[in-house]
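Hi Q.,

Before the meeting this afternoon, I wanted you to have the flavin-adenine dinucleotide prediction in hand. No need to reply - just skim if you have a minute. The sequence and ligand are here:
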Amino acid sequence: MTDVLVVAELLEGKVRKNTLSAITAAKTLAGDGAIDILAIGEGAAGAASELTGFGARKVITAEIAGGYTSEDYAPTVAAVAKNGGYGAVIAAASALGQDLLPRVAVRLGAGFAPDVSKIEIEGGKAVFTRPMYAGNVIGKLTVNTPVAVVTVRQTEFEPAEASGGASPVEAANVESSDLAARVSSKGIEVVASERPDLSEAEVVVAGGRSLKSKENFESLLEPLADALGAGIGASRAACDAGYISAEAQIGQTGKVVAPKLYFAIGISGAIQHLAGMKGSKTIVAINKDKEAPIAQVADYFLAADLFDVVPELTEAVKKVKAAG
Amino acid sequence: MKILVPIKRVADPDNANKVKLNGDATEVTSEGLEWKLNPFDEWSLEAALRLTEDGKSKARKGEVVLVTIGPKDAVAQIRQGLAMGAERGILIEGDDKALDANVVAHALKAVVEKEQPDLVILGKQTADGDSNLVGTYLAELLGWPVANFATSIRTSDDGKNLTVVREFDTGAATIEVQGPAVLTTSDRILQPQSIKNGITPDDFAYPESEGGRYASLKGIMQAKKKPVEETTLDALGVSAEPQVSYVQFALPPARSGSTTFVESVDELIQKLRDEAKAL
Ligand SMILES: Cc1cc2nc3c(=O)[nH]c(=O)nc-3n(C[C@H](O)[C@H](O)[C@H](O)COP(=O)(O)OP(=O)(O)OC[C@H]3O[C@@H](n4cnc5c(N)ncnc54)[C@H](O)[C@@H]3O)c2cc1C
Ligand SMILES: Nc1ncnc2c1ncn2[C@@H]1O[C@H](COP(=O)(O)O)[C@@H](O)[C@H]1O
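Predicted structure with the ligand bound:
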């Protein structure tokens, strides 16, 4: 239908997995058109080799030293998009995607479909579906400008599988930016974790305010997550209270997850929390209060004191796993 | 320091599951739901107030100007913000259905050019559209830096230089910014020590709170007398058109199946293994 440019997301010189979801979305949008992938930032040239196996017409690199800022990256992304004559520019709807692409859209005079969950082509025109109102309304929109800028929800698009082949790699001109001089990046404190990334985990164990302290949060939830091979998430209240860092927040303002199995432990299930997890396949709630709104989405509800049952649950899961 | 805070009203976000659609599902209707200030904007406003006061003595040390683009009734949210402590308001009349990030950002640009603020602080998103676009659009249109998802802001005494910690989904990123600049706030911007303006004593901590400050009775009385300028997109010379059209809405399907209340860990394990095949 049209040629599509995918903007890959790099973290410490490695391609983040959400890029593979953006590639899948780009293929739907492109139809019989081509997709190209842009790797931009520090280590872009090295990361290109991670991107050549997905059937892109080419992989474009733009090596920019120093930490990420939209001021620094946007002019180059927009120039690559313009020179390539793409009908769409697409990235994951991560914090970085949501930070960088709006600048690119303005530069391209392009309409923006943010946080898209589905792409359909109807009569030669792309129709984008997206959750709104914290997931309580599903909107469909069309973009009225010649170029569309799109960010996509990682959980709604399967990661692209490498299809073999080797896309040629070429380097783009890096555009200078006067604005970049007014912003200097002092670096990002990447939260390293041995656990599966929340957005990719098959099981998520999430805890709320009721865990009462960082120590409880860790001593109760980590063994359970270890036993399940799960990622650990949290409600906003738990993040605000410092039981776990902000990256663990699930919901309207945090991450969106859709694992096979989700445990909401001492989480009331506010609308804003449900927005980030109600796409999970099986939802388990552990809560003292049977009336808690989490019951609206829970498949299984254990009405109990979490301090009593979580250690018991951890032991029981270990047994099941040991038995295979 | 002068700060512009763009605000929008939204249908009560804590009851977002009660919004409905019109007959042919081309519009979202929120009849029966109260209009509230977008919570993200309430947080931005509180952040702006903290940046322009001595937190200890509560003396105002700068100016906060509110602006909304929306129907005339949206003056209620401006009055609410004035009652919290902002000094002035601007209401730009506009039909919500004819607005998108492009139109809103162009309107805000016109206001910035007139008002010449040192900072514009927006919510990172509205709780209805959840778009997360306007702040960055505005910055790009103005040729200004933007610090999105701010969770802590420290300004120099004159407010021209900022150190901002931003919340990314990979970790906290710190940037130094030379104003004037656009900021959008994350939901942790109102932590007790998140905002430092060089006026409030450095060791001062605001009380823990989930939202902005409550308006005092005195504040509510004063708000009635504070100036609110009413204008239009035309009068501001804004000719931008929406770049996207919402063609259809749907309510999400309810989750299939019902809730099974289990009595014990053993029963939960058994159901997860045998029924849900999730273990
Ligand atoms: C604009 C906006 C955006 C927001 N975005 C998000 C978001 O992205 N993510 C998010 O999570 N929240 C978000 N929130 C906050 C949300 O509204 C709730 O305040 C928050 O999710 C509540 O967290 P909680 O469930 O941990 O705490 P609470 O609501 O306090 O619930 C605690 C629960 O634990 C139960 N409990 C207490 N003790 C025990 C025990 N011993 N054993 C078992 N159960 C127990 C209680 O019955 C209760 O149900 C947002 C709010 C706003 C206004
Ligand atoms: N109609 C409007 N009037 C004033 N400010 C707005 C309007 N719409 C959005 N904003 C501002 O832009 C921010 C982000 O909104 P959005 O990009 O629509 O999610 C909001 O938090 C507001 O600060």
